[in-house]
Design goal:
- This protein has 158 residues and is an all-alpha fold.
- Helix 1 crosses helix 2.
- Helix content is 34%, strand content 3%.
- It is globular and about 45 Å long.
- It binds zinc ion (ZN).
- Zinc ion binds next to helix 5.
């Protein structure tokens, strides 16, 4: 593989999620996250977040491009706990540390995703809920229903 290491590499923040760091690397290297994922040959447009997301990725080359020691990779991923009856690890950012996000904008730390985390493990501040984009709650059931209704109307018209 002849992939060059990324020219700009801000260091990962303490306990930063791989997905958060990859987003910051994309920013630092003036490309989009999907473009960087394509360069890293992750096989998908969103950055890996769990161990299973790494399936099919050639780890040595992936780490060499990021200049990341392969041993550090596991500590940047979320571990799914199949033995837990209830999902205690969030799939998306629901809380954050205002002090740390003020220091490094756009970061997302691994322990912030844990339902049982109340305080930032880096600076000790209390974690705050992340304000959601109201647009994220807009569902489109009517739009999805329309083609089917049209289809049945067309069938009835025949
Ligand atoms: Zn903090």
């Amino acid at each position: 593989m002849n992939r060059k290491p990324l020219p700009r590499r801000p260091a990962p923040y303490q306990d930063e999620l791989l997905s958060s760091w990859i987003a910051r690397l994309a920013d630092a290297n003036f490309c989009s996250v999907p473009e960087l994922c394509q360069y890293l040959e992750t096989g998908q447009e969103r950055p890996p977040e769990t161990q299973s997301d790494l399936a099919g990725i050639e780890i040595d080359g992936f780490c060499a491009t990021l200049r990341l020691p392969p041993l550090q990779l596991g500590s940047m991923l979320l571990q799914r706990r199949a033995e837990f009856a209830v999902e205690c690890i969030s799939w998306s950012d629901f809380q954050h540390c205002p002090a740390c996000t003020h220091k490094v904008s756009g970061i997302s730390l691994r322990h912030w995703r844990y339902a049982w985390s109340l305080q930032c493990e880096v600076c000790g501040s209390e974690l705050s809920p992340v304000r959601r984009d109201p647009a994220a709650f807009v569902h489109l059931p009517t739009r999805l229903r329309t083609p089917r209704q049209k289809g049945s109307e067309m069938a009835e018209a025949r």
